[in-house]
């Protein structure tokens, strides 16, 4: 929900036009930042769970049992207890990493490409076309992000594709705005002018000079949206608008376990803790990346 | 200033029109027949056509939009398909509860966020700063619907101090200023407040540190002003931005309350949206979203105008 923080129009400007050694020094700085390293480690661990979880925890996350319903954490054979249908929580949380990360990260990736394309087109073209594009973007930007996501997926109906589509549409406007401001600044830089003077076509200039220099700052901004996207994607499933039962997705699991908070409160809270850990790691990593790039000189 | 206000309003009008168009189209991107939830499965074609005419679905899209817009401008948002009551009345009843909740949450979040932000900005890179900044990151990273569940687990299920759901005793849906209703407000408002808390704290930390590094602060200190007097100058410089962030956050909370209202069964607009979605009550969905989105646009406008009035340096138009 967090306002896709004020699109810092001024911020990408500082990061414009850097040499390859710039990126090397950014990563060198990141390696010395303990918080960034810890966040990266958590994200890496989650990725491993998402990719290899079914082999690491070879327990069926769908096998239910009426006799083993809502067992507490620490039950022999079920280290993290069981859910309201007697399914193993550890298996469901691990298998859920795949769904939850997929639902949270995909919209930002799609919106990154779409938003960058729209914003760079508007910024580089400028004029009437640029204005028309950006005013349309402004209309979508005028909706609070949670409201737009729920409005779209509510109208389209429950389902994975609809949830992904809605979330992508939510993140396109802020990314397009940042991309537009970066591209507008680049358009008037001397080296773009020089390329134009030496006869480079518009496509070549955009491909070589604008894309090459604009994608970095836009990417950094997009990384800061992953945390919001994770919370929103699981939120849609929590409302019953995203992933559908019996799939193990953390938001959906949280919803179905709500009825159990008087019986096994801490088992019921587990899926949310996973969402929290993911979202805070992405947030910290994005923050560290931004401050690693911010160093002047 | 008048001229700025006028320009700003002029800029907001096409946005509001665009927002209305998006809300109108919501019903038309929805798959299936919007009448499906009112018609009996064995309805005749004649009855179907009669109902479509009643709801205006038989006309062309642009015509439907203009008629809908003209009616919406007079406060008529159509009829709820599920309850057959006017949408405007349903939304009006729910909006009050959502505003109460969001206003309390903003108040709590802004107060805490301002304290954390000032402390962190003043004592930059000290342990206090790290603590305040950590709280701010927690605030923006926590899935608030989960935080709500955890608070219910602790304060309702385990300790039994506060009620878990509803806006008042006995399923009351009207907000009343009494102790029982206030007890129902505490958990959802605190849950909701973590978002503005984190954002206000982050914004103010950067802002305060930036103001403190400016030369005029050094000038004030050099002239021998007390630290408290310097602090007053910092507050004055930070206030316009802080108030703007607070206003925008109130808008985000109004529009984003659906998850928290669902967790706490709070009888506001989020609860209404939830019902509208699952009963496929598209006019109700459309009307609620239109009201919330226009609210947000107007709030943005007010924030810009007030901020510019307080701080003429940022006059842009």
Descriptive labels:
heterodimer; A: 297 residues; mainly alpha; MetI-like fold; elongated; disordered N terminus; B: 317 residues; 12 helices; 74% helix; 0% strand
Describe the structure concisely.
The complex is a heterodimer of chains A (297) and B (317). Chain A is mainly α.
Task: Please provide a written account of the structure.
Chain A is mostly helical. Chain A has one domain (43-61, 76-293): MetI-like (MetI-like fold, Orthogonal Bundle). Chain A contains 11 helices and no strands. Chain A has helices at 10-15, 20-31, 34-56, 89-125, 127-141, 145-156, 160-187, 190-197, 202-239, 250-256, 265-294. The model of chain A is unreliable at 1-15 (pLDDT under 50). Chain B is an all-alpha fold and 317 residues long. Chain B has one domain (87-316): Orthogonal Bundle (MetI-like fold), CATH 1.10.3720.10. Chain B contains 12 helices and no strands. The longest helix of chain B has 36 residues, at 87-122. The N and C termini of chain B lie close together (10 Å). The mean pLDDT of chain B is 84. At the A-B interface, helix 5, helix 6, helix 9 and helix 11 of A face helix 1, helix 5, helix 6, helix 7 and helix 9 of B.
CA gyration radius of chain B, whole angstroms: 24 Å
CATH-level-4 superfamily name of chain A: MetI-like
CATH architecture of chain B: Orthogonal Bundle
Would you identify the regions of chain B where 5 or more consecutive residues have pLDDT less than 50? Answer: none
Number of domains as seen in the coordinates of chain A: 1
The level-1 CATH class of chain A: Mainly Alpha
The description of the largest β-sheet of chain B is: none
CATH topology of chain A: MetI-like fold
Instruction: State the separation between the terminal residues of chain B, measured CA to CA.
Output: 10 Å
């Amino acid at each position: 929900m967090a306002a896709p923080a004020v699109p810092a129009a001024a911020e990408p400007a500082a990061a414009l036009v850097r040499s390859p050694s710039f990126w090397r020094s950014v990563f060198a700085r990141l390696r010395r930042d303990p918080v960034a390293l810890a966040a990266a480690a958590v994200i890496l661990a989650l990725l491993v769970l998402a990719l290899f979880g079914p082999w690491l925890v070879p327990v069926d996350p769908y096998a239910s049992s009426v006799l083993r319903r809502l067992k507490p954490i620490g039950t022999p054979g079920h280290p993290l207890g069981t859910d309201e249908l007697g399914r193993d929580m550890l298996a469901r949380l691990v298998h859920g990493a795949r769904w939850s990360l997929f639902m949270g990260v995909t919209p930002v990736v799609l919106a990154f490409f779409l938003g960058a394309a729209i914003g760079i087109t508007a910024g580089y073209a400028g004029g009437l076309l640029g204005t028309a594009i950006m005013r349309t973007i402004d209309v979508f930007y005028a909706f609070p992000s949670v409201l737009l996501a729920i409005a779209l997926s509510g109208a389209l109906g429950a389902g994975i594709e609809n949830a992904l589509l809605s979330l992508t549409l939510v993140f396109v406007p802020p990314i397009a705005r940042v991309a537009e401001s970066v591209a507008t600044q680049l358009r008037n830089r001397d080296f773009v002018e020089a390329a134009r003077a030496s006869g480079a076509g518009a496509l070549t200039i955009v491909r070589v000079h604008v894309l090459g220099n604009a994608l970095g700052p836009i990417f950094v901004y997009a990384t800061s949206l992953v945390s919001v996207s994770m919370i929103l994607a699981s939120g849609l499933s929590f409302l019953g608008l995203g992933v559908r039962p019996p799939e193990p997705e953390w938001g959906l699991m949280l919803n179905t376990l709500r009825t159990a908070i008087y019986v096994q409160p801490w088992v019921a809270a587990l899926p949310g803790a996973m969402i929290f850990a993911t979202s805070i790691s992405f947030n910290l990593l994005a923050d560290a990346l931004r401050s690693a790039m911010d160093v002047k000189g | 200033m008048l001229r700025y206000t006028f320009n700003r309003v002029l800029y907001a009008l096409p946005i509001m029109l665009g927002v209305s168009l998006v809300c109108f189209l919501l019903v038309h991107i929805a798959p299936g027949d919007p009448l499906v939830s009112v018609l009996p499965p064995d309805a005749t074609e004649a009855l179907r056509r009669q109902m479509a005419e009643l709801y205006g679905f038989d006309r062309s899209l642009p015509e439907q939009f203009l008629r809908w817009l003209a009616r919406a401008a007079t406060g008529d948002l159509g009829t709820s398909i599920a309850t057959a009551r006017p949408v405007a009345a349903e939304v009006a009843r729910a909006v009050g509860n959502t505003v109460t909740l969001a206003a309390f949450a903003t108040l709590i979040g802004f107060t805490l966020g301002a304290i954390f932000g000032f402390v962190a900005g003043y004592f930059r890179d000290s342990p206090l700063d790290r603590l305040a900044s950590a709280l701010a990151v927690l605030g923006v990273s926590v899935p608030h619907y989960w935080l709500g569940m955890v608070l219910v687990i602790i304060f309702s299920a385990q300790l039994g101090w506060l009620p878990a759901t509803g806006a008042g005793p006995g399923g009351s849906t009207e907000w009343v200023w009494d102790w029982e209703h206030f007890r129902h407000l505490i958990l959802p408002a605190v849950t909701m407040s973590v978002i503005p808390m984190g954002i206000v704290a982050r914004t103010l930390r950067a802002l305060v540190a930036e103001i403190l590094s400016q030369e005029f602060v050094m000038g004030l200190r050099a002239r021998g002003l007390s630290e408290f007097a310097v602090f007053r100058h910092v507050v004055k410089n930070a206030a316009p931005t802080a108030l703007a962030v607070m206003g925008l956050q109130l808008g985000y909370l109004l529009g984003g309350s659906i998850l928290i209202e669902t967790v706490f069964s709070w009888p506001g607009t989020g609860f209404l949206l939830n019902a509208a979605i699952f009963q496929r009550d598209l006019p109700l969905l459309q009307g609620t979203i239109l009201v919330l989105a226009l609210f947000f646009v107007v709030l943005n406008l007010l924030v810009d105008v007030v901020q510019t009035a307080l701080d003429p340096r940022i006059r842009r138009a």
